[in-house]
Amino acid sequence: MGKTIIVTGGAGFIGANFVYLELQEHPEDRIVCLDKLTYAGNLETLAEAMKNPQFRFVKADICDREAVDKLFEEEKPDIVVNFAAESHVDRSIENPGIFLQTNIIGTQVLMDACRKHGIERYHQVSTDEVYGDLPLDRPDLFFTEQTPLHTSSPYSSSKAGADLLVNAYHRTYGLPTTISRCSNNYGPYQFPEKLIPLMIANALADKPLPVYGEGLNVRDWLYVEDHCKAIDLIIRKGKVGEVYNIGGHNEMRNIDIVKIICEALGKPESLITHVTDRKGHDMRYAIDPTFIHKELGWLPETMFKDGIKKTIQWYLDNKPWWENIISGEYQNYFHKMYGERLAEAEEKA
Ligand code: NAD
Ligand code: TYD
């Protein structure tokens, strides 16, 4: 018999990709998306899913106990996958409160509902950022599941707080939980405040490409579909109580990513503008994915050179999706986050 899976945050970047993967790979399962539709949630992203009778969308806040309880009563889910979060580091530096609320309290509310109604699995989608950062001059170091949590930003701290709470609910109440900690994702439907889609959108408009500091910071990039496939494996075959690191051994410097985007779009590198660095900016993230490979046989399937091409093509083919976003409230955001930085860079030049 098919399972009922509640996917929170399914109107966002990774959650939506996961919804589509599940509908395609497990047509017998019912997928219920619970999403508050914050600035980062977009119902247009789920337009195709809405046509599938196995899919239901519910607009609600994961912090709203009553709404969450009602949904659990109606749907009696077998599995809950929690993607819902405030996810942008820069916003967490501006306004940490909402990160603690959604990322920690929201996780607690969901797990309380899981305890009350009984579920087969609660899966927490976490991040490699809970491990802090690695120095650039030690390429031999990687994050393993045993690396101590050591966070830098309000975002990563709120995610680490949630992870600790998940482990506490497993140990104290026996809740059947799993956690995955993934490196930076890229691919279709990513909100254009994150590095790759922001640079694509700006380059296409011949706007400055704001690189923080020297752009030497390293991220370990994974194509979003590979992340979703890993989560699919964990919720079906993963061991309760475990943490799984997910990453593709694909470390890249920010500046090199931006140059690749310029080249792919035929835009001059003179658009690259070095701006004031992010406060507390993590230097390097690098995941050791040995455990998930050995336990579940997972390996990334998309090479960066192919994934970035597909991603750029997706943004070219789906201009209305992101142009719609950047025409609204986003303008204020861009001005607030980049206005001063770009003016300073111009003065220096
Ligand atoms: P996103 O910002 O694109 O989407 C977040 C979604 O959550 C949106 O649809 C939003 O409306 C929803 N949401 C926010 N607050 C909510 C609330 N209180 N109640 C219900 N819904 C709410 O984020 P993303 O990049 O898709 O990330 C998804 C998850 O994966 C997050 O937990 C994030 O920490 C984690 N993660 C992201 C990355 C990455 O590179 N993007 C890497 C590792 C882990
Ligand atoms: P981001 O996509 O925000 O992901 P995270 O901070 O979670 O890794 O940023 C990726 C890297 O790109 C990070 O080192 C910050 C840098 N960056 C810029 O240089 N300029 C930008 O405008 C943005 C959004 C990010």
Describe the structure.
With 349 residues, this protein is α/β, with parallel strands linked by helices. The chain has helices at residues 13-25, 47-50, 65-75, 89-94, 97-117, 154-173, 195-204, 224-237, 254-265, 290-296, 304-317, 319-326, 330-348; strands at residues 4-8, 30-35, 55-59, 79-82, 121-127, 177-182, 185-186, 209-212, 218-220, 222-223, 243-246, 251-253, 272-275. The protein is 46% helix and 16% strand. It starts with a strand and ends with a helix. The mean pLDDT is 97. Helix 6 (154-173) links the parallel strand 5 and strand 6. A 7-stranded parallel sheet has the order 3-2-1-4-5-6-11, with helices on both faces. Helix 5 runs parallel beside helix 6 (154-173). The structure holds nicotinamide-adenine-dinucleotide (NAD) and thymidine-5'-diphosphate. Residues 89, 184, 194-195, 198, 210-212, 217, 219, 254, 278 line the site of thymidine-5'-diphosphate.
Outline the fold blueprint:
Blueprint: E1 4-8, H1 13-25, E2 30-35, H2 47-50, E3 55-59, H3 65-75, E4 79-82, H4 89-94, H5 97-117, E5 121-127, H6 154-173, E6 177-182, E7 185-186, H7 195-204, E8 209-212, E9 218-220, E10 222-223, H8 224-237, E11 243-246, E12 251-253, H9 254-265, E13 272-275, H10 290-296, H11 304-317, H12 319-326, H13 330-348
Parallel strand pairs: 1-2, 1-4, 2-3, 4-5, 5-6, 6-11, 7-10, 8-13
Antiparallel strand pairs: 9-12
Helix pairs in contact: 1-8, 3-5, 5-6, 7-9
The structure holds nicotinamide-adenine-dinucleotide and thymidine-5'-diphosphate.
